[in-house]
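Hey, quick one: can you model this chain's 3D structure?
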Amino acid sequence: MPKIRIFRSGELIAQTEAIIGETLLDRINAVGVFIDAPCGGKGRCGKCLVRLSPEGEQILACKTLIEKDTDIYLPEEMDMMIAGAESSASLNLADRPYPPSQGKKLGVAIDVGTTTVVAHLTDIVSGMRIATASGVNAQRPYGADVISRIQYCAENGHARLTQLIREQIESLIRHTCTISGERARDIGYIAIAANTIMQHLAAGFSPVGMGVAPFEPVSYFGDEHPAWDGLAVGRGAKIYYAPAISAYVGGDITAGMLAAKLNETNGPTVYLDIGTNGEIAMKSGATYYCCATAAGPAFEGAEITMGMAAISGAINHVKWEDGMKLSIIGEKEPQGLCGSGLLDALAVLLDTGAVDETGRLLDPDEIDHAIAEHIGKVCDENVFWLSKTGDGVYMSAKDIRKLQLAKAAIAAGIYTLLQQAGFAANEVKSFVLAGGFGSYMDHVSAAKIGLFPEEFLPITQTMGNTAGEGAALAVRSAEARVALDEIRAHCEYVELSTSKVFNDAFIEHILFNQAI
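Sure thing. Here's the predicted structure for all 516 residues.
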């Protein structure tokens, strides 16, 4: 059997034996080493780049077969900007109207996102946050979105993805204890808020049924389970999973709405958690109208020509102020665009007239603006150069189309819920942006591309990792868990795939400059 050595940053990090004919990506995943592969190894995203020598040519791990002894050199480990991952020991939940439960003094609130995972070690009695640990979701090499992971489970079973997320949760919990000096055996309660697919995998359930009609989950959760064997917690510890509304509107949304205090207002309020999935809720009176849109992974930088996660080297903001102005994470040479940078770049193209209302990236001689100097061609396709024209970071016409479809899905989802509740955009009193992408994107750019109505700009609140905050409330208080059940009981799920209103709105909002 071929012998494989895996290196990162010049250091040997793993040795293994391989089967002749398997891909480099399969072998890297098999030994539990992280490599970014947003398309799940389908050969679409072009992100799983490795080298076979320190200075060798980059090749796709998913497309390269193992035939002999091989050394694999991986890119630098991802250091992603993660909403809610900041050290937040000063955060105090004691001002929320939910009294603490009795029992062991420590709890852990966990937000399992499709892209990232955040764990908060919390003092149940005082409500103080003690320590936080976070990381890129260990399942990401099996696909950037939940559909890719459902497909993996359909073909291979769910045991591997369950193992990965449980091991990661275990690692994050141990890390919070290490940095805080607390004892894992004093942890008596864990609350997990995640989309329905991620909660299934953490609980050990197959998500495959949610990939085909009628899209039925094994569980809608909202209940407690014994901690799984080997988890670093106290004896008899319980794990609570936040209640889900549907296969694609999960416990992260109910927990997020609790954290955003939607249960304390009559609205009308629109709540948007935007990432690899686009979940939208509208609170009107006692009712929460909810839907999920297939926005795809474009807003996370996945399946974009030079897209990347929000890590060092990513362009995260773009402005045109007497020329191109770029903000780059880590203040180094730009290597690609993350979601917020993509959104800004598209807004600049629209604002300068370089992209028309149909989404076409114009030729330079059609543009009456200095930005025309940044328009060129790669493989006979128009591109927008953001750095080093001709040899730098660019956005392609195909990238623009993917963003156009993603923004149309979100905009049409908002429009559908407004119609369902009987409100116009200018009647909404509050607009809550949740999740990682919502935390970092420029609101004006988002409105410019038509992601949400411009009428929402004065009433927009960015609330960050609301799923994690909702999980923290659930850790601390049985009354908060009752409040989550009440939120679910008053939710009305709107199925978009069969909605004529949504389908018509989606077609309309593919165009730019269309009002919601």
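One thing worth noting: The two ends are 59 Å apart (CA to CA).
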